[in-house]
Amino acid sequence: MEKVLLVIGDAAEVTDTLYPYYRVQEDGYQCWVAAPEKRIYHLVQHDKPADWDLTQESKGYDFASDIAFRDIKEQEYLGLILSGGRAPEYIRYDEDLMRITRHFAESGKPIGVVCHGIEIVAKAGVIRGKRVTTVAKCAYDAEVCGASYVDEPCVVDGNIISARTFHDNAPWMREFMKQLNAARERK
Fold first, then answer.
1. How many domains are there within the chain?
2. Could you give the CA distance from residue 51 to residue 7 in angstroms, rounded to a whole number?
3. Which residues are catalytic, by number?
4. Residue 78's domain is classified under what CATH number?
5. For 75-111, what is each residue's pLDDT tens digit?
6. Bridge-partner residues for 55, per DSSP?
7. pTM to 2 decimals?
8. Taking every pair of C-alpha atoms in the chain, what is the biggest distance, in angstroms?
């Protein structure tokens, strides 16, 4: 059974994480949750009340990782999913995660990235010259690293499939699954 990596850390957004976690399993893939260490992480729920100027955060589920970044042999995995929330703000400095992300980008394997997950591919230097979307407050992260930001639910540019927020999970995962299933057929 082919394996897919789902990257999280403390404060990963719960819907950004759980929707793809179960979706890839529906098509028969193993979903390996990867994080800085193998331990329990604390997911968060994001909401933007109409009378707030910024996102409100509350505690979500606790979620265990299966593998630490340093222990990943990226060639064993067919796809990579980068969850959003605040976790990417700190995990993007992990050199093993950068190695993994660059492997997927260079090998043409599908990379699904949602919301703040754009901070990971931006730091890895793999979005230069690409069209991407993300939550509007992360547009700068994409643009300063050489990408063109567009405000659309889902953008596919090569093997990078990006979405703004969990509100765009359906079109995002539909496009990610197309590429993932096509990669499985080529094996």
1. 1
2. 32
3. 116
4. 3.40.50.880
5. 999 999 999 999 999 999 999 999 999 999 999 999 9
6. none
7. 0.96
8. 50
